[in-house]
Amino acid sequence: MSGTHAINSGQAGDSGGGSEPESDAVPGNLPPESASFVGRVRELGLLDALLRERRLITVTGVGGVGKSRLALRAVRDLARPRRPAHRDGVWWVELSPLRDPELLTATVAHALGLAVQSTRSLDEELCSWMADKELLLVLDTCEHLVAASRHLVGELLQTAPGLTVLTTTREPLGCPGEALLELCPLPADGPDSDALTLFRERALTATARATGLFADPGRAALAAEVCRRLDGIPLALELAGARLRRWSLEELAQKLDLRFEIPSDAPAPLLPRHQTLRTAIGWSHELCAPVERLLWARLSVFAGDFDLAAARAVCAGGPLPAGRVEQVLASLVAKSVVRQSGTAGAYGTGTRYLMLDTLREYGHDWLAELGEVRTLADRHAHWYAQLAQAADTGWLGPGQLDWHRRMTADLMQLRTALEHLLGTDPAAALEMAGALWFLWFCCGYGHEGRTYLERALRTAPPTGAAYTQGLWALGLICLIQGDLATARAYGEQCTEAAARLADPERELRAAYLLAAAVLMPGAPKQALQLSGPQARGAIGGRSSGPGWLLCRLAASYALCDLGRFEEAVEEATGLREACAELGERWLRAYADYMLAMAALRLGQPDEAARHVRAMLSGKRLLGDRFGIALGLDLLAAAVAAQGDGELAARLLGNGHAWWRTVGRPQMGSPSLTAVRDAGERQARAAIGDAAYEIAFRGGAQVPTG
Fold first, then answer.
1. Please, are residues 156 and 163 in contact by the beta-carbon 8 Å criterion?
2. Intra-chain end-to-end CA distance of the chain, in Å
3. φ, ψ (nearest 5 deg) of residue 461
4. Residues of 200-230 as b/e, b for ≥16 C-beta within 10 angstroms?
């Protein structure tokens, strides 16, 4: 391939939020290594050299050969503080669950910790953020997204001279200057081969009785022959090793002979590697119990990891009752068909499970043979649509942090469900996308939320509560992206639709959207008329509902802008108390922000700093980058008013770094910009321009991850 530098690893010679971190911390998000690592000494050396010398490196090889595991082991060493080759960290992007190439940039951006909220394209925002970074970006499992990955990687490398990209894929990207490392299976010849070592380790994991399995020379030779028949492919070896939980080595070899159609007294030919793996997976599939094969097939509907509750709801039925799903799932884990991928730590989801792409693809083929593809896709979408509704109901409550974690963990599943519903049931898609308003508006997923909502609104019936909610959710996204004219237009449509429903909660939500849309460009009087106590009283509704609480937030902000600070404090205090009673954090933090703003305007910088620190504490818990950026600007203004110009400058520098992850500093709002500028003026006056610039740069270098 022209412009591509390739290295074949061969087999010869192989022997196997906003707070300042510790000074030696290296930013990044590397996943834990989920299994033991065997051999690959030569490949690791080659990859280490390439990562030092080249900017784009691609590890290729057949499915199941260990590309991801090699990449993770190689970059983990680079992420250690003693090897500061990449000042801005080592970042891992798992792409195997992603099916829509249009979401590639969003997936990369979120893995890097960006929560872009602007009307510019995500490609532009990502390139702009990356331009001055020195980091290593790993795109794992790209073969189904080659064209999109090639385009994005090309744009990023051209924009960011300090960027190095490592990809793993079954086929090269085809970019100019791409260095290829072809990963071959583990050496399988000889009594001390790496393949045999891996097989032995997997056998010992499967059963304690395997301890003496390889002590006898004859049995060790038989184990080596099994490894050779499996061509040294790690995934095939792991599947076979897991079988020793139930069988002796001799039984395993005999069953393997039958599957590969090899006479027991004949030498075993080496099959082409793709065929070897496919045959090994098929052999493992045949040896599963019928109910295990059924669950294997049905689990293929999940994109990425999932929890037990989802598996039970989506996959139960027929010969697999819901009460047996956990037991059968555990059996598939024991057979290495499914892996445990850690815990989500969210709302009782507990352990999460994952099926490797190669095994998922095999299961999906069988699901098609069973004629259940549409049925399972419908069940999957229905389950996650219900989950979205439950999260919407519980968002403004004590489970908010857990819901945030859970919905973030299930993002790939939510995407899959929405995409399915958009093609099969637009009304249900609109209802689900509208219910996820908090994910789009509060959690930084506005770009994709806008796409889903616009598509659903084009095709769903323009009536009913779901339509009104969809308009409102889309308006919120436009609002936070700074598309204020569009937000206002949606607010007006939402107001009309809510009036037809005669639903006070919907009317209050529409009032907030309209108020915020006029408030941001500088019309606080109009905003107060839409959201203040008189307007809320005229509409009615629950004082603990989202619409009422959001209107109180808009009113307190408008009152501050109008210089009516005592009234602003009254509104913000009432909002904070209501949120505290609900056990809610996201909106309560904004109440703290407004209390801090009012205190600062009243000449009480100590009180302002206390409130804004409380605000930042809540925002960091939820990873609200927009809120953290806002809070840092206000905290800087407060400490500048206290006379600490150096700390104010550092906070403004750190705030600048956080705003870059959001994409639109101060939302373009005159009042927000004025707060930030006032803090800068006071800090410069306190310490001088030169000291200010040094402190600002220091704050800007504090990682935002």
1. yes
2. 38
3. -60, 135
4. bbbbbbbbeebeebbeeeebbebbbbbbbbb
Measure the CA–CA gap between 477 and 486, rounded to whole angstroms: 10
Beta bridge partners of 164: 136
At 286 the pLDDT is 85
* Strands lying side by side in the sheet with 339-343: 306-307, 351-354, 339-343
- Band the pLDDT of 273: cuts 50, 70, 90: low
Angle between helices 524-531 and 546-561 (to 10 degrees): 150
Could you read off the pLDDT of 287-329 as tens digits, one per residue? 899 999 999 999 999 999 999 999 999 999 999 999 999 999 9
Place of tokens 């009536």: 463
Sorting pLDDT into bands at 50, 70 and 90, what band is 250?
A: confident
Tell me how far apart the alpha carbons of residues 353 and 680 are, in angstroms, rounded to a whole number.
49
Structure tokens at 467: 């339509």
Q: Distance between CA 51 and CA 540 in Å, rounded? A: 62
**Helices marked H in 184-338:** 194-206, 217-229, 234-242, 249-260, 273-286, 290-299, 308-315, 322-334
> What is the DSSP secondary structure assignment for residue 512, as one 8-state letter?
H
The neighbour count for residue 56, using CB atoms within 10 Å, is 23
* Residues written for the chain: 705
Q: Which residues of 590-608 are buried (b: 16+ CB within 10 A; e: fewer)?
A: bbbbbbbbbbbeeebbebb
For 106, what's the count of Cα atoms within 13 Å in the CB-facing half-sphere? 22
* pLDDT per position as a tens digit, 391-417: 999 999 999 999 999 999 999 999 999
Coil, strand or helix at 458: helix
Percent of the chain with pLDDT over 70: 90
Q: Average per-residue pLDDT in the chain?
A: 89
The more confidently predicted of residues 246 and 505 is: 505
Cα 149 from Cα 72, distance rounded (Å): 19
Q: Give the integer Cα–Cα distance in Å for 573 and 535.
A: 19
Residue with tokens 């809540």: 618
The residues facing 60 across adjacent strands are 169, 182
- Closest-CA residue to 701 (of 641, 642, 656, 661): 656
Q: Which of 235, 279, 285 is nearest to 260 (CA)?
A: 279
Quick one: pLDDT band at residue 117, thresholds 50, 70, 90? confident
Q: Strand, helix or coil at 457? A: helix
